[in-house]
Design a protein that fits this description.
Strands 1-2 form a two-stranded antiparallel ribbon. It has a two-stranded antiparallel sheet with strand order 3-4. The protein is about 70% helix and about 0% strand. The protein is globular, with a radius of gyration of 25 Å. Among the domains are: about 200 residues, no CATH class; about 210 residues, no CATH class. It is mainly α.
Length: about 600
């Protein structure tokens, strides 16, 4: 590559870094002070894009950009004031669930207001031309963005270091309890930080419209990129976010320039995995102090009473008799519920008793599904043996990834699980010869004796019930007690002779293997598999199921999986704006039943 090409790619990377920094800076500010992992931040970016395109035709581009940013900041005010204030003391994952529901509502609001088609924005007046640099035409607007990123960084640093408000923000990010004890009005401080973070997200989206169209799918991509930048830079560090944005944007630009454009799908997650393994708190981050009110702290779980076993037996009997009265589609839906109940239970096993976050549990679900498809379609073995062998591939993946993940904690561990999941997704998406690439794999059907919906439903019921029973028994075994000891007090557990990391690693592997069972059952149920089965959305679905059901109950994942699967199916088939309905139901449950649906049934016992 010539020096001219290197310079051009460097400039492309700098322009991309500025756009990425704007949205990541807002997310970093919000997390640094409120400790909320705001999943709706990408939706605010998307909203800024749509508003800027819509306003540009009415007031002009340069008025539309700040107006869109301020409008998104106002939306952030209402979100924080009317929703987030009610859940600041809730566990982090419950907050994540609430912001995920908000993302669903905002997406359908954009769909209602502007329709499903992408919206093209105008060129920036005065910056619509190009400058000849090293024999190549570089857009003037890119040069403007290159200048804007550092200016925003300097502005934020001055605000945080030279103003009273900024000093209070830094104090709250260091120690919220001490800041409150000194008389800092944290409520209004949190509101101001969230509004500023939302405004930055809206500004980042608005400034992007001359470079790409406003799209309903941009929110998930942007929040994924922003999470990576914030974690690589160090949670709560604005300079760290700027450095990480530079590193990731330049890596993507040079991958494209060298002819490896496919690598841009995964390079940021490879960088994140490498940084977290080398420096567990990010480039400029610091080790997080142990939580004073950890979200997973709970009373020791008691072995289920006899009436619980009776209720379970009655439920199994009802499920076994349902095919007598249920039609074909009902059996398909029930099969999905059983599969996702196992998927959610396996995730709950490491989140509840294990105290481990995972934003990438779908990796093992997808690996199991793909392994089953590969074994059958390539005639390596029969369907029955594929169903037995495929989960082992998922277990091996969990064994490998888990070795790294259990060495971190909190959000850093969760983001490392996401990094590994995205690497697995990228392999499935691009390995055309083995996985079918973006088209996936089709023709993955069960054996003839399981071809009917009824027969396959019974197989799924038996396998899922057995696996879920295994998890419940394991939680009340010596292994389960050791796992919970490592969750509640790792120092005391270690002093007692428990190898906390080894126990967590074993639990991570077992959970991955069980997710592989669910994935292989899902593949044979649908007859096909696609990369979406390993994607971020599937992992988020699993988190939603666990949190909806309640992380402090054994049956919570079952109720959560059943409700979420039914809700998605019922609303998607009957309503145009089904995401908004699903989001509002989730928000209602978060506010009314913060401990999940399972806690409601516990109270009724």
């Amino acid at each position: 590559m010539s020096w001219e090409s290197i310079l051009i790619q460097l400039l492309n990377g700098l322009a991309g870094a500025s756009s990425l920094f704007l949205v990541a800076a807002g997310l970093s500010l919000i997390f640094g002070v409120t400790r909320i992992v705001n999943f709706a931040h990408g939706s605010l970016y998307m909203l800024g894009m749509y508003l800027a395109v819509w306003l540009s035709g009415r007031v002009g581009f340069w008025v539309a950009v700040p107006l869109a940013a301020v409008s998104v900041g106002l939306v952030g005010f209402f979100i924080e004031f009317f929703l987030l204030k009610k859940i600041y003391k809730a566990p982090e994952l419950l907050q994540l669930l609430a912001t995920f529901a908000l993302a669903l509502v905002i997406k359908d609001a954009a769909l209602w207001a502007w329709g499903p088609e992408d919206m093209l924005g105008p060129r920036a007046p005065g910056f619509s031309g190009a400058v000849n640099i090293a024999g190549s035409a570089v857009p003037q607007y890119d040069l403007l963005l290159i200048l804007l990123g550092p200016l925003v960084l300097v502005f934020l640093q001055l605000v945080l270091s030279k103003t009273r408000w900024g000093i209070l923000v830094r104090a709250a990010s260091e120690d919220r309890e001490m800041a409150g004890a000194l008389g800092v009005n944290q409520r209004w401080l949190f509101t101001g930080v969230f509004v500023l973070g939302a405004l930055l997200a809206g500004l980042g989206g608005a400034l992007q419209i001359p470079r790409e169209p406003a799209s309903l799918n941009v929110d998930l991509r942007v929040i994924s990129d922003a999470f990576v930048v914030v974690v690589v830079g160090g949670l709560g560090s604005i300079p760290g976010a700027f450095l990480a944005a530079l590193l990731i944007a330049e890596a993507k630009a040079f991958c494209t320039g060298l002819g490896y454009s496919e690598a841009t799908l995964v390079i940021e997650f490879v960088i994140m995995a490498a940084v977290l393994v080398w420096r567990p708190w990010g480039l400029l981050g610091r080790a997080q102090a142990p939580a004073k009110n950890p979200g997973f702290a709970q009373a020791p779980a008691e072995f289920p009473a006899r009436k619980v076993f009776i209720a379970g037996a009655v439920l199994l009997a009802v499920l076994a008799l349902l095919p007598v009265a249920a039609g074909g589609y009902t059996l398909v839906l029930l099969t999905d519920m059983l599969v996702f109940a196992l998927f959610a239970t396996s995730l709950h096993f490491i989140m509840g008793p294990g105290g481990l976050y995972s934003f990438g549990h779908a990796a093992y679900f997808g690996i199991g599904a793909y392994a089953a498809g590969i074994l059958v379609l390539n005639k390596i073995t029969t369907m029955e043996f594929a169903l037995a062998l495929a989960p082992l591939a998922a277990g091996l993946g969990a064994l490998l990834f888990g070795w790294f993940c259990v060495r971190l904690s909190g959000v850093y561990s969760a983001m490392l699980t996401l990094a590994f999941a995205q690497i697995a997704w990228s392999a499935a998406f691009q390995w055309n010869a083995l996985t079918g690439g973006s088209n996936g794999m089709v023709g993955i059907w069960p054996a003839p004796w399981l071809a009917s919906k009824t027969a396959y439903y019974y197989l799924t019921l038996i396998l899922c019930a057995a696996a879920i029973s295994f998890f419940w028994r394991a939680i009340h075994s010596p292994f389960g007690y050791a796992l919970r000891a490592g969750r509640d007090s790792p120092q005391r557990a270690d002093a007692s002779g428990i190898d906390v990391r080894a126990v967590q690693w074993a639990a991570f592997t077992i959970a991955g293997l069980a997710a592989g069972v669910a994935g292989s059952l899902y593949a044979f149920s649908k007859g096909s598999i696609s990369p979406e089965s390993l994607g971020i959305q599937r992992s988020v679905d699993g988190l939603v199921m666990v949190m909806l059901g309640g992380i402090q109950t054994l049956t919570g994942p079952l109720w959560g999986a059943a409700l979420f699967t039914w809700l998605q199916d019922a609303t998607a088939r009957n309503l145009d704006y089904w995401r908004a309905v699903t989001g509002m139901v989730i928000l209602a449950l978060v506010l009314l039943l913060p401990n999940g649906i399972g806690s409601f049934f516990q109270k009724k016992k």
